[in-house]
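can u pls check wat happens w/ pyridoxal-5'-phosphate
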Amino acid sequence: MSNRYAALEARVAALDAAGLRRQLVALRPTSATTARAGSEDLVVFCSNDYLGLAAHPEVQAAFLGSGAGSARLVSGNRPAHVELEEALGEHFGRPATLFGSGYAANLGLLTTVLQRGDRVVSDALNHASIIDGLRLSGAERQIVPHGGDTESLPGARLAVTESLFSMDGDLADFTRWTGEPWLAVDEAHAVGALGPDGRGLAADRGVDPDFLVGTLGKAFGAAGAFVVGPSALRELLVSTARSFVYSTGMPEGVARAALVGLRLANAERRERLARNAARLRSGLRQIGAQVLGEAHIVPVLTGSRTMQVARALRSDGVFAPGIRHPTVPRGLERVRFTASSEHTDEQIDRCIAAMAAALSQTA
Ligand SMILES: Cc1ncc(COP(=O)(O)O)c(C=O)c1O
């Protein structure tokens, strides 16, 4: 009898052969920075819960409530959505629109503001959700080297960049991105964590992007995402963005948890995050690791031995999986550490010692 799924199984086997089959690990959080995987107790150094708010009792208590039951334009619009959009609008100074995820937010934004015939300039290291949004938009894509390129901006409709880059941990230089086209900035890893009142890197640099994407599932400890921009954008998103119109509204508990996260993301937590990131970075540099970037995302280039390094870290109780192709280019595989405001000095030092051991074991 022929195997109905032979073609799929062959692709799984090919992934396996290339060392690219990914595995899910079920982690049960035991504190803001620790988790259990089966019988293993691990210190987590790869969460985007930068301010430890996902574990905060007030955020967790807020998750109560019902599912939306339909898209917001049908019967799924809740007072919690409206309240959260108002709070975000006030915080970021312009109308905000909620999406189920940052992925959906980028798709919604980019397919809405771009039209066929437009040219868009995009950083080479932009996130997959930006790449997919640009592809879906049908606009002419001009991918420029990481860091930005002022020369390609004239005549373009839109320039799009992350602010704190998710896999390189470096910060956009907005002077290279600001010009004639509209500017869209994906602040997924920066809102809550960087800038005045946690409004992100652009706000920190005195830049007011036309469109800003922020997530609620990282520093704010909940889930979902939002787009901030002019009122006309809000109207277009609600009426035409397919990832808004054709998707169930977020559960009201998620919106309430995000509201609490927004309130709890305060300057003390941001200061602790910056201090912990600096301690982790300098400790890893001191052991000779090839550390990239400059903020609370702390990638270490480990190349072909990345998965071995990640395994060695885990056997030492430190959880930070390896990042491989296609998330990063071949040859630039890495272990991506992230700092949390809630890591203790002892946990950070343990991570650095575990990395020193892992690097020497796999040399
Ligand atoms: C830069 C960037 N944008 C968007 C997203 C997607 O956000 P979400 O996880 O809310 O879908 C991510 C996720 O990691 C990201 O790193």
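The chain has a mean pLDDT of 97.
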